[in-house]
Amino acid sequence: MRPAAGCLALVVAMVAACSSASGNGQGPAAVDLTVYAAASLKGALAAARTAYTTATPGVSLTIATDSSSTLCSQIEQGAPADVFLSADESNPKRLVDAGLADGAAVGFAGNTLVVIVPTANPAGIASPADLAGNGIKIIAAGAEVPITRYATQAVTNLANQPGYPAGFATAYDANVVSKEDNVKAVVAKIELGEGDAAIVYATDAKASTKVTTVEIPATANVPATYAGVVVGASTHRDAAHAFLTWLAGPDGQAVLATFGFVPPS
Predict the structure, then answer these.
(1) Beta bridge partner(s), residue 227
(2) Three-class SS state of 168
(3) Which of 114, 144, 152, 265 fits 69 for a cystine, CB–CB 3.0-4.6 Å?
């Protein structure tokens, strides 16, 4: 009987050891990645989260969105993000240059600009030239928000287009009545009729059912390149790199494309 008892004890010990290994962190551990992302990515990343976590069991994504500049500053101050997805290339570069990123920035999406107006278009805006008209109320974002830099360049380009009034850029600036924290807040103001027009990303216009789009000529439009980095302080850098690679790859691009994003230029 002693050999049988000894075998039984050995089996029990082996089962216990296996249970301990799988239940106490010895097996694959679940990873929750915190992703800080530009406000204009909010809808697309909700869909990307579903696609990625379905394809990658054990990984979950917590997504926080705001203006790229605000999020970059929060990361510089020690906010616990794993991945930073910006609506421009300069904010990720800022983290790389400061030694706060793990590896180089990765371009993952592109966008263009449009003018949006409330669906009823009470100001009768028919072209970007009308943004310089008397009494037009333009909603913009703060100076550090990427959409503002892109819009400023677009306005400069428009001012050089044939048929645009002298002093177009100055008149446009004079018509800005509000500067919001991020592009989603800009769109919301137009949706509520609190402004006559705004320059936003084409993807934001596409996502809203309460605005009408006025196209900016291709000769004056400004391509926006979105880039991301893995945050150096991340405790899940391998998983963070895997997600960023996926987003920039074919599967991630397919999700982004459904929201109007294009490949980075």
Answers:
(1) 86, 107
(2) helix
(3) 144
For 15-41, the pLDDT digits (tens) are 333 333 334 444 457 999 999 999 999
pTM metric for this prediction: 0.88
Q: Residue holding tokens 């333009």?
A: 138
User: Which residue has tokens 């669906």?
Assistant: 119
**Domain residue limits at 62:** 31-110+224-257
3-state secondary structure of 5: helix
DSSP track, 151-174: HHHHHHHHHTSTTPPTTHHHHHHH
Distance separating alpha carbons of residues 149 and 155, to the nearest angstrom: 10
Q: Tokens for 8, please give them.
A: 């039984």
Does residue 22 sit within a domain?
no
From start to end of 39-175, where are the E strands?
A: 59-66, 83-86, 106-111, 113-118, 138-141
**Are 234 and 209 part of one and the same domain?**
no
Do 52 and 89 reside in the same domain of the chain?
Answer: yes
